[in-house]
Structures are given as structure tokens and as C-alpha cells.
Amino acid sequence: MSNLFEEEAGPQPPREIRSSIEILALLKGLQQHREPLKISFDDRHQAFQSFIVQLDSDRLWIDELIPQEGNRYMSQQEAFQVDAWRDGVHIRWYCPSARQVMLDDAPAFETSLPLELTYHQKRGAFRAAVARGLNTKLGLVHSQRSYEANGQLIDISATGCKIRLAGAWHERLQPGEVFDLSYLELPDSGRMPVSVEIRHCHYDANQDETQVGIKFKQASPNIQRQIDRFVNQLQREARRFEKNDLF
């Protein structure tokens, strides 16, 4: 018998990301939030720090290293590993070399966009399944987009949810994008404003629907209580169902 709910206990196994669109979205998130990069050279014991200063579809530029000794290793085109952390997610990739360039009249290092990176997320919240008959909705609204996407919840936890959207939305919803004017509707709670981040998308051509993983971004205390109350209710109902199913 499959569970109607499960505990998202971390850490989850690392996942290899090879989609160029998803890789670019993750790196953009590091750039926009000015997340520090840990640079480690092969056969060198010292670690260095840098930041992503620019991106395009196939290249990235990082700032000069701290301490400055690392710039010498970069100029020698030594191979290195990059480690970064954002919202509890460890992102790691490998670079065979980089070259020193001038970017907007400032020195920087240019390298190719990684062909793959490792994505390792720790999770620590219950995820409860949501029945189709329940009156739930998540509206994806972006302050700089003209469209709105309305989906029904598949599951929900205190930190995020998964929704289904009718039709093909996987090319319009990119991982890492934040839909800042979204709203969540739960039974007996009405419409609640939420800011959400797209974590992943999958289009099922047979069902003609897109499943989207969502993370809630800094929900207000009142809205977080409403979410927690709904999750707890679903957990109690699932436990009651499983208990009755044993007899």
C-alpha cells in the first residue's frame, strides 16, 4: 500500500543536472543573489572565493579571486571545482580551465558554461498528497509577465508544493524564476498572496498537463500558519485512512 503522505527527510541524493536551460537558471540565481563561489584547484590545498559577474547562453565570467594568489593559478589555466550554496542547496561543477579577460574595463575570468552540475538539496518537511476533489488553486503571477497560470495542487508541504497545469507550460516556466505576485487558495482560507519560486517542470504529453515544483518564498506568519494547518489536516486524514485500511 502506498502512503498518501511522506516525510521529506534530508539529505536527498545529489542530482546531476544536464539541461542547459536549467543550468543557466541555477547560475543566474547565484549571480542575482550575489552568492559567493568557493574555488578549489586540483592539487592545491587552499580554497578561494569569487562571484559570477556575467552570464550568457554558453559562457560565464567570474570576478578576480580572493585571496589574490588564486588569480595566478587561474592565469595558468589550471583546472578547478566550483562550490556554491543557495537556500540550503549545494551546487557544484567542474571547470577544466578559464582565461583572464577584461570585462567592462575590469579584470575577470571567462570560462564555458558547465555541461553538467551537481544539485544537492536537503529537505525537512512533510509532503502531503492533495485529492483532486479538494478546492485548491495556485495562481502563478509575475510582475513582468502578461500571462497568468492557474494550477491545482498535487501535494503540499510547509515549504512548497507541486501543481498541475493544463497544457504545455514547461518552456515558459524556468527553474529559478520567482513569481512574486502569485496567490494560493486552500479550503476555508480564501485567496492568500504568496511569492513562489519555480523549482522544476515536467510536461506529460499523454495527459497534456505540466507538473510544476514550487517553493514558497518568505510567506507571512499568518499565511504560513494557514499552510501548516492545511498540511496537518491532510496528515491526520491520511493517518486515519491508513489505520482504517489495516482492519
Automatic annotation (TrEMBL):
Asked whether the keyword Signal is assigned, the reply is no
Q: Which residues form the Type III secretion system flagellar brake protein YcgR PilZN domain?
A: 17-118
| UniProt KW Calcium keyword | no
Q: Name one GO molecular function term.
A: cyclic-di-GMP binding
Concerning InterPro entries, the annotation shows: PilZ_domain, Split_barrel_FMN-bd, T3SS_YcgR_PilZN
Which intervals hold domain PilZ? Answer: 121-232
Enumerate the UniProt keywords alphabetically: Bacterial flagellum, c-di-GMP, Nucleotide-binding
- List the Pfam families hit by this protein, alphabetically: PilZ, PilZN
Query: Can you name this protein?
Result: Pilus assembly protein PilZ
Q: What organism is the protein native to?
A: Halopseudomonas phragmitis
